[in-house]
Amino acid sequence: MSETVDWGPIRELARRVFIEGTRLALTTEVKALLKRTASEVGISDTEAESALATEEGALGLLSEESRRIREGSRRLMDALHRMYQHKDKGDFGSAREEMRGVLKAEVVPHYRALAQGQLEAMPDEP
């Protein structure tokens, strides 16, 4: 399973920038946060470096990171809910398909690892 991630700081930055309208200041700390988060959400170092060259690019990077975290979380949670419903009915094939669906769509390594762990922990069908 992947290591624990702390997306609180990136969520807070996105809230300040996109909801409160605070200007994105490309400090050393903000650049480091954006670059670290990029690798955690499946964005290459090359893409992140390129985006961090301009304020517009950094805004786009922050937006994409936030989107991947938000949508990946929603995708996984919805699939887990359906997976447990299937498991409760004894339908492990459909439960497995829920996690396989996440793996087909998901790019965030942390969410992929959680889905893979659920898939591997599922008992074989009788």
TrEMBL record:
It comes from Myxococcus llanfairpwllgwyngyllgogerychwyrndrobwllllantysiliogogogochensis. This is DUF2379 domain-containing protein. Pfam families: DUF2379 (PF09543). InterPro entries: DUSAM_dom (IPR011753). The lineage of its organism: Bacteria, Pseudomonadati, Myxococcota, Myxococcia, Myxococcales. Residues 6-122 form the DUSAM domain.
